[in-house]
Design goal:
Elements lengths: L1 H14 L2 H8 L6 E4 L4 E4 L2 H4 L10 E4 L5 E6 L5 E5 L4 E6 L25 E4 L21 E2 L13 E8 L2 H6 L4 E10 L2 E10 L5 E12 L6 E4 L5 E4 L5 E4 L5 E2 L4 E5 L5 E6 L4 E8 L3 E6 L1 H7 L11 E15 L4 E3 L1 E8 L2 E2 L2 E2 L1 H4 L8
Antiparallel strand pairs: 1-2, 3-4, 4-5, 5-6, 7-12, 8-9, 9-10, 10-11, 11-22, 11-23, 12-21, 13-16, 13-18, 14-15, 14-17, 17-20, 18-19, 19-23, 20-21, 24-25
Helix pairs in contact: 1-2
The chain binds 6-O-phosphono-alpha-D-glucopyranose (G6P).
């Protein structure tokens, strides 16, 4: 069946233009049974679709050459996103001009159980190395499932979305003995990519965790990038044994390795890419901290899954809950929210036009 998928995909690629290719890749409707252990995706016949709950837009999935099933989201303006069920990881977000907004390592390791460096990955139940687990926990090295019973989506014709779920399995309980359900809704709409993570304690005892959405954003040249919104805040410097400092600069710029956890950050942070004249705007709630990371040249060379020059075109700006771990009692649920959007940077004497990127924002309820 996997061969069938791949043959269809290749035939489709040859027959269709790029814009229609995505549509064609959507041959396999998500009314599918996904058997990960065999590395296969087995579509049900269409009659079974009727038995499933209706979704607002048809959801599309295909299996790529590495055997990793991915969901493709598209919206009428032409932007698109790709989400791997492995790690629940967003690996691509293209704007309406088909320009990639996310960074993917040129040496990313696509073989399980490795984590894939790039896109937007989920760090749970532990961020970084602080704790008993391996770096960034295990959610990024697990196969997630489609959530067949998500909470109802807000009605909208021009967005497409997917709901994923990760439940604790036996192997997880051995290393982190707390039963949980981690849900992630990914919504694509014109110029925006929204991620809504939710974690429910399905155990009989309380547990605590740290969490991050690790956003690898694509930039033209890291030396020309500035991050605004973190000035005057306190941060833990991971390069200085997590010592606490207060940010003194007007904006964060880069001329060497940086690995900081800013605490109590505002709900909006801007990444200004001077060369591209483009600003990423990160809006978030439920995740009070923000991690800023760039490995620079030496660390990039030391990391086996990062190209030597890759650091120049990436910045990691993570939405996170690290300083104060989240505690959930049995049956309680935590919910976060993250929205990434881009706007054209507008300058007046080198200053970002505040009306364009720093205007008020209200989160959807
Ligand atoms: O390799 P990854 O899991 O993508 O993590 C990459 C980086 O993410 C963060 O932002 C951390 O602060 C870094 O210490 C880490 O190395």
């Amino acid at each position: 069946m996997a061969d069938f998928f791949w043959n269809q995909l290749v035939a489709g690629a040859a027959a269709y233009s790029d814009s229609k290719f995505t549509t064609f890749c959507c041959v396999i409707n998500i009314a599918s049974k996904l058997d990960w252990r065999k590395g296969k995706v087995t579509p049900f016949v269409s009659s079974i679709r009727a038995k499933l709950r209706p979704s607002p837009m048809p959801l599309n999935i295909f299996q790529d050459i590495d055997g990793l099933p991915r969901v493709i989201l598209t919206e009428p303006n032409g932007s698109s996103a790709q989400v791997l069920l492995y790690g629940g990881q967003v690996i691509s977000w293209k704007n309406e001009r088909k320009e990639e907004q996310l960074f993917m390592s040129s040496k990313a390791n696509w073989k399980q159980p490795q984590a894939i460096k790039g896109g937007i990955s989920v760090c749970f139940p532990q961020f970084g190395n602080v704790g008993s687990l391996g770096p960034h926990g295990f959610a990024k090295n697990r196969f997630w499932s489609l959530d067949r019973d998500p909470s109802p989506l807000p009605p909208s014709e021009n967005q497409s979305s997917v709901d994923l779920i990760l439940k604790s399995k036996e192997e997880d309980l051995k290393i982190w003995p707390h039963s949980f359900e981690l849900r992630l809704r990914i919504i694509l709409s014109a110029g925006k990519l929204i991620l809504i993570p939710r974690i429910r304690n399905t155990d009989s005892k309380a547990f605590s965790f740290t969490f991050a959405l690790c956003n690898y954003l694509s930039v033209s040249d890291i030396s020309e990038v500035r991050v605004e919104g973190l000035e005057t805040l306190d941060y833990f410097d991971n390069l200085m044994k997590r010592a606490r400092f207060t940010e003194q600069a007007d904006a964060i710029t880069f001329d060497g390795e940086m690995n900081r956890v800013y605490v109590h950050t505002p709900t909006k942070i801007a990444i200004i890419d001077h060369e591209k004249k483009r600003t990423f705007v990160l809006r978030k709630s439920g995740m009070p901290d923000a991690v800023v990371w760039n490995p620079w040249d030496k660390k990039a060379k030391a990391l086996p899954d990062l190209g030597d020059e890759d650091y120049k075109t990436m910045i990691c700006l993570n939405s996170a809950a690290i300083e104060t771990p989240i505690i959930l009692k049995p049956s309680e649920e935590w919910k976060g929210y993250q929205e990434l959007s881009t706007v054209l940077s507008s300058y007046c004497s080198g200053q970002l036009d505040p009306g364009k990127v720093l205007c008020g924002f209200h989160y959807p309820s």
